[in-house]
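Need residues for this backbone.
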């Protein structure tokens, strides 16, 4: 007896081929992808609008400088309360460490990262493991 080889995907009673059935099943997927594409295009256009200008605070207009506990200039010289100090004098001159009121350090923009890391190590040895590093907001 010779058996007729059956197809892996049997033909339904409609008489359509496998490709026709697959194409029919892909149309809803293509529609969903198109709708998602349109959604993200419109969302991108809406989000690309600039935010309205925010009102300036009164404190920013006065030009007040923040209170600094320690200032480091471009050459790495330290100043506390207007007087020049060395890294060895940090533990003597600086106030004791307080978690609520950490030491505020202002560093010059040209100070290298290596010099900053050395300063952070010296401050940690002087009893200030965490500090607040203040920077200039104007480029």
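Answer:
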């Amino acid at each position: 007896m010779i058996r007729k080889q059956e197809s892996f995907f049997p033909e339904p009673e409609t008489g359509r081929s496998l490709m026709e059935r697959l194409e029919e099943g892909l149309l809803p997927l293509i529609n969903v992808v198109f709708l998602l594409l349109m959604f993200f295009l419109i969302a991108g256009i809406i989000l690309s609008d600039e935010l309205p200008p925010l009102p300036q605070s009164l404190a920013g207009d006065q030009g007040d400088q923040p209170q600094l506990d320690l200032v480091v200039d471009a050459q790495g010289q330290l100043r506390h309360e207007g007087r020049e100090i060395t890294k060895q004098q940090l533990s003597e001159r600086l106030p004791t460490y307080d978690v609520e009121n950490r030491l505020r350090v202002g560093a010059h923009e040209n100070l290298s990262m290596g010099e900053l890391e050395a300063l952070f190590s010296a401050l940690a040895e002087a009893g200030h493991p965490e500090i607040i590093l203040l920077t200039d907001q104007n480029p």
